[in-house]
Amino acid sequence: MDWDSNNLFQDDEDQDDTFTQDREANKEFVIYMIDAGPDMFIQIKQEDEGKTETHFGTLVKCIVESLKIRIINKDSDEVAICFYNTREKKNMQESEGVYVFNVPEREELDRPTARLIKDFSRIEDKFKMEIGSQSAIIPGSRENPLYNALWVAQGLLRKGSTHNADKRILLFTNNDDPFGNIDRGAKADMRRTTIQRAKDAQDLGISIELFPLNRPGEEFNVAIFYADMLELEKEEVSQFIPVAVEKFEDLKNQLRKRMYKKRTVRKITLVVADGMSIGLHTYALIRPAIQGSVTWLDSVTNIPLKSESSYICADTGALLTEPLPRFQMYKNEMVKLTLDELSEIKKVTSVPLRLLGFKPLHCLKEYHNLRPPTFLYPSDEEISGSTCVFIAIYRSMLRLQKYAVAFYGYSSNPQLVALVAREEITSSSGQIEPPGMHMIYLPYSDDIRHVEKLHMTTNGPAPRASEEQIDNAVAMMRKLELKDFSVYQFSNPALQRHYAILQVLALEEDELPETKDETMPDEEGMQRHSKILYMVKIMTLRKLRQRQLKLKEVKHLKREKHQLK
After folding, report:
1. pLDDT tens digits, 350-394
2. pLDDT, tens digit, for every residue of 287-333?
3. Of 210, 271, 393, 457, which has the fewest Cβ atoms less than 10 A away?
4. pTM given for the model
């Protein structure tokens, strides 16, 4: 049994070419290029039990975790692991000093597998014996391992097209001068050819990302060589190291979550007025994260099984090949219906989305949003001029603080919707929220329930909080309010544990990885507001104690009255 959640939000009308103008890659081709020179094995920290930590060991752990997360995030991604500055060579080009790590029954650039992760996690123990390490440039040799590694990586990334795949080389090293103290003429030649090789790769749509590591007592100087190789500006050089360190930490601390490609969910038409329509693309910007669907596998071949349904005639026992007829009983008669007739009966309207009018934004309440909204963006593919009309309506709605009310005539659940214009949100790092409209599905009248007030109880009047209790409770709620809250700040603990269990089963690990439940109360944060919490607790307990005494007194009076009778 396997898990796959690529088809969570697919629709029957979806096609492979239904993308917006900002077309994004479906998958990633990633080369982990690791410097295996002697400097990578220098001790940087003493671990427990007498073990030493090196940059090489740290990278192995980091890449193992990255591969585990990548299987969950986007299982269509393909990766390769390439060492350079090695004693042994293993690559298609037979280049010296480059070793492409792989496992049997897997291509060099392919999806990560459980066996690849298990074997790579043990590479540190046998690396020196089976692969070996050597200096970047051997005196008297014209071999350039960094140039060779870029050439090998470029050959691996010939697979696929840059139109549907994002090709990346992640370069890990702690050597800021890969050519060392060799002859000045040879060094200048190697520097020039390596920079040209990197430029050729970037011209082919391959991005190169450097992850520098600091040697003990020495800070990585990107200006010596890699600033020229990566074509960094002067302003970028000074900010490169802090940004790279942050990216490296993000690579180690990735969250287990599925990543979905941004694509059109459905194409619809908005009828503005008679004779005027707008072509729209709809997108699901946010949806609840759920476990992947189950895929049954053959117990012998491990090939996914396909389920097929067949109908057998109850009278003859023959296999039915034609579609089953549909019927409806009417006055003891069987009325047969075709699929086209059933579809026409269920059809509410031929117009998917019709504009009805506009209302002030303050009329739209928070409780009207009962489910995740759908994002709308114009498209000129079907109807020319849709973008111009959409922008005119969009700007007017923002200026007048209005939202549009429309009828959404979907056959299974026709309802009224609110179209709310959303301004673009940007930051120094780029766009955060795109401009467009959110289609909010408005509730039916029966969906809204008014709060039922409890006026009386069997034991007398209903308890009411005093003004002092209300004030303390309001103060407490304001203190505990989360500022700048976002759903992305908290992970689903049930999903994290589910992925952790899958990881243990796939990698045959002995211990279950620890999953942190971020939804638990922040005890440390609540201690900062302990005074308010204490006041609310005291006032509540005092009121409760007074009520208990009052009830006890009432029962005592009733008992005395009964005894007198």
Report:
1. 778 899 999 999 999 888 888 889 999 998 888 888 999 999 999
2. 777 777 788 888 888 788 888 888 888 888 888 887 777 888 888 88
3. 457
4. 0.64
- Output the CA–CA distances (angstroms, integers) from residue 462 to 374, 412, 536, 557, in the order listed: 43, 44, 20, 20
The number of C-alpha atoms within 13 Å of 341 and in the hemisphere containing its C-beta is 8
DSSP class of 292? P
- Characterize 30-61 residue by residue with b for buried, 16 or more Cβ atoms within 10 angstroms of its Cβ, and e for exposed: bbbbbbbbebbbeebeeeeeeeeebbbbbbbe
Helix-strand-coil split of the chain, %, nearest 5 = 35, 25, 40
Q: How many helices (H) and strands (E) does the chain have?
A: 13, 24
Residues with Cβ < 8 Å from 264, sequence gap 6 or more? 14, 18, 19, 20, 281, 282, 283
Q: Quick one: residue 518, left, alpha or beta (phi over 0 = left, psi -120 to 50 = alpha)?
A: alpha
H or E, element range at 327: strand 326-330
- Closest to 382 measured CA to CA, from 533, 263, 270: 270
Tokens of 539: 């006032």
3-state secondary structure of 16: coil
Q: Are strands 98-101 and 436-441 parallel, antiparallel or unpaired?
A: unpaired
**Residues 204, 155 contacting (CB under 8 angstroms):** no
Three-class secondary structure of residue 260 per DSSP: coil
The percent of residues in the chain predicted with pLDDT above 90, rounded, is: 20
Please check whether residue 367 is in contact with residue 448, taking contact to mean a CB–CB distance below 8 angstroms.
yes
